[in-house]
Amino acid sequence: SGSAAGAAAGGAARSYTVKSGDTLSKIAKQMYGDAAQWKKIHEANRSKIPNPDLIHPGDELTIPQ
């Protein structure tokens, strides 16, 4: 798999809308089956979420493949 930027440009990425109570780890567990993959989500959304501990309901995140 290529870089997160490459995945987003290729249209392979999915999007996810943050819900109340979500964390990047929870989203990673749901999307990849592995909470440790939260860093991949953070990298792909760094412009939207500079602090990985602060995500807000309604935020639209890119989920790289």
Automatic annotation (TrEMBL):
Superkingdom of source: Bacteria
Cross-referenced Pfam families: LysM
Limits of the LysM domain: 14-63
Protein's UniProt name: LysM domain-containing protein
